[in-house]
Amino acid sequence: MSDWSTRLVQLARAEWQHLTQVQRSDRLWQMPVAAALATGLPLLVGAWFGHIEFGLVSSLGGMVFVHTPNTPMQHRMVVLMACAFAMSACYATGVICHFAPGWAVPAIAFLTAVVTMLVRLYSMGPPGSLFFVMAAAIGAYTPVQVEDLPRSVGLLFLGAFLAVLIAFAYSLWALRLRAPQEPPEPAPPSFDFVVFDSVVIGAFVGLSLALAQALGLSRPYWVPVTCLAVIQGASLRAVWIRQLHRVLGTAAGLMVAWAILSLPLGPWSVAFVLMGLSFVIEISVVRHYGLAVMFITPLTILLADAAHLGAVAPGPLVQARFADTAVGCAVALLGAWCLHDRRFRVLVGRPMRRLIPPRLLR
Q: What are the extents of the domains in the chain?
């Protein structure tokens, strides 16, 4: 074999190894159970009262549970209460943008930058700012009336509050089984890590949403969510691997979603399906990201569209979701290249530094 074909085979083997590598997990089995309850209980309540659409909004707030750190009780409760407030504020901002569509792109970009700064400043682990931005993006494209705004935000807050209570009960049990870790020290407020990276990430997330609107995609809110999920890699290589996982996992997940959406689902069955998906995601996400995405895809589709089951055929919905993923990944790869390019950092970072007082720079 020639040199170029040998290198190509080696590259293909390396990519395959990265794609199929499964990590070890030290999570307690009670954690996925609690996560499923945080996602599913609001839906069960909504099904009981005949308003599954209310349960879906509260279920989005239940995503606060996944931010539960493995730290002492007093620290994890402060973190979760702060996350519940931030999730509610992001969703409220998104819903307000629904009444001023022209502000959706700058608002999502600004929120992404600010939330990413805070997540990095306080050394919060995965999923980072993802669900806060997802709540804002979904809220921006949720058709509500002005008089329904307080109710929508209140429903999400109730879901987030329930997630905090579930996390408290789970923590009482988990801390008996395993000693907590020390809370992470806040990161030094360095310009490059906290400010520059966050602003660039926010700019490309906003760019992805603007591109989705320009292309006339039917559900543009999934594009910035996909972009943010991919661009957060620590290196360009990590972003590339994450993008492959995202695309392949979404492709497989769309088949799962198509099969689920083809079933005669009712409010109660939607609730139990979402609980099952949440359980599987929390088991697999720390082991293999691509495998988790295969179940994240149907879960996010149900969260956004379960209230309209039967009104939309599964085929067009699945095709739209894959188009959203492809556009989001393409913008994320471009953003990651800029983010990890030294010349870009110097060219853009130098004028940005002039806007910040020197005493705050490190």
A: 28-360
